[in-house]
Design brief:
Order of helices and strands: HEHEEHEEEEEHEHHEEEHEEHEHEHEHEH
Helix content: 25-40%
Bound molecules: guanosine-5'-diphosphate, manganese (II) ion
Strand content: 15-25%
């Protein structure tokens, strides 16, 4: 589950990372009001789940109300690589002396958490990794020990952080690690992690702000956080963060109904019982030259109400041109599924053809029932390959 920048920053703030105060808004008027409140200059930022917003014109500084209005007007509705901007984040603008990079993720091949740090922030980190890999520190963390402050200081030094902000960077890394661990994140990234200039007056005088002698501070200017959706039950306070920007409306409905449904790009609706069977159905349909429109695991349920619910979900996607029902009868008997389908068809009258493959317990009876019912637009198939070829032909 990917979070918008401002939601990520809220998590950062909860764990003691410094971020700018701001407000999320959805209209130009609210953007201007928020800018007045946080104080000029402000930065107007598109909230979409894609990087490179700055380059795409989705991040703009505004020195006054007229500029804030102009930028908000231009950015709302902007299409950034296919993501339409519906929400803006308005925060007080920061002065920037340096842009660093920091992230925490799980290195699956090493089976360990990994902290990454670079003083070459503000640009695509893949570019740094490719062109000057020596400038990107990759540090594995002992998952049981966690990231110690001493370790974090070493990372900051190794990456070449300015000496006066080494401790500030280390604190940020420890906090970011805490975000990643405690919030069950799969990724926590800050790009740029900025160093602010010394505040006027305190120039070179060693100061007592706790972040180093020069008064320069370390702060998260951007946030990219992905949470593990399967761990959300442990974080009721994060449940509201699920993104409405890109969430498929059918997926949302399926979730509410407790049905395992994943939207895909194609035009062939898929239903099967058991996640493994559904996944192999997707493969077989693709092999036959078709493009699945969804993953739907009907699980052990076979009663009419469940089948009807599943059919309704599949057909709610108006790209669907044909549907493949792939049922392997075990505890769920094929005759029960056939009855469910017949009842469902009585209620819904689907507008697209269905191919039904029934195999396993009581498959013969199931097929007989379907044949007797003579449902219009329903084709029975015996094998998975035969079913896949038929459904691809019908969808063409
Ligand atoms: P991204 O392009 O989607 O990664 O969006 P970012 O939040 O990283 O912003 C892009 C760039 O805009 C940053 O690297 C900064 O250079 C600049 N920027 C963002 N916020 C501020 C700010 O408060 N002050 C200044 N001076 N620049 C900012
Ligand atoms: Mn960024």
């Amino acid at each position: 589950m990917d979070l918008l920048e401002y939601q990520g920053k809220q998590l950062f703030a909860r764990h003691g990372l410094e971020v700018s105060a701001g407000e999320a808004v959805t209209t130009v008027e609210d953007a201007v009001a928020a800018a007045d409140k946080v104080g000029y200059p402000v930065v107007v930022k598109a909230q979409v789940l894609i990087g490179g917003r700055g380059k795409a014109g989705g991040v703009k500084l505004a020195a006054n109300e007229a500029e804030a209005r102009e930028h908000a007007t231009n950015i709302l509705g902007l299409d950034i690589k296919g993501h339409i901007v519906r929400t803006l984040w308005i925060e007080h603008a920061s002065d920037i002396a340096a842009e660093y990079y920091a992230s925490v993720l799980l290195d699956r091949s090493a089976k360990q958490p990994m902290v990454m740090f670079s003083v070459e922030g503000g640009v695509e980190i893949e570019q740094v990794a490719e062109q000057s890999p020596e400038k990107l520190v990759r540090h594995h963390v002992d998952a049981l020990q966690g990231l110690s402050r001493e370790e974090a200081i070493e990372i900051a030094r190794e990456g070449g952080a300015d000496e006066d902000v080494v401790e500030g960077v280390a604190d940020a890394l420890v906090a970011l690690y805490e975000v990643w661990l405690q919030e069950d994140a799969t990724l926590a990234e800050i790009n740029p992690l900025i160093v602010t200039p010394a505040s006027p007056g305190d120039g070179t005088t060693p100061g007592g702000d706790g972040q180093g002698g020069s008064g320069r501070r370390v702060k998260a200017l951007d946030a990219k956080v992905s949470l593990d959706g399967n761990a959300l039950y442990r974080h009721p306070e994060n449940q509201g963060l699920s993104d409405s920007e890109n969430e498929d409306p059918i997926e949302r409905k399926a979730k509410e109904q407790g049905v395992q449904y994943v939207a895909l790009d194609g035009d062939i609706g898929i239903l099967g019982n058991g996640a493994g069977l559904v996944m192999s159905t997707l493969d077989v349909v693709a092999q036959a030259g078709g493009a699945p429109a969804n993953f739907l695991d009907a699980g052990g349920g076979s009663d009419a109400a469940k089948v009807k619910q599943a059919v309704e979900l599949i057909l709610a996607n108006d790209k669907v041109k044909a549907v493949l029902f792939n049922i392997f009868g075990g505890i769920t008997r094929c005759d029960e599924v056939a009855k469910g389908l017949i009842t469902a068809f009585g209620d819904i009258e689907p507008s697209v053809p269905f191919v039904v493959r029934l195999d396993g317990t009581n498959d013969v009876q199931g097929r007989e029932l379907l044949q007797e019912a003579a449902l219009p637009g329903v084709y029975a198939a015996r094998t998975m390959n035969e079913a896949a070829e038929k459904v691809v032909e019908l969808a063409a």
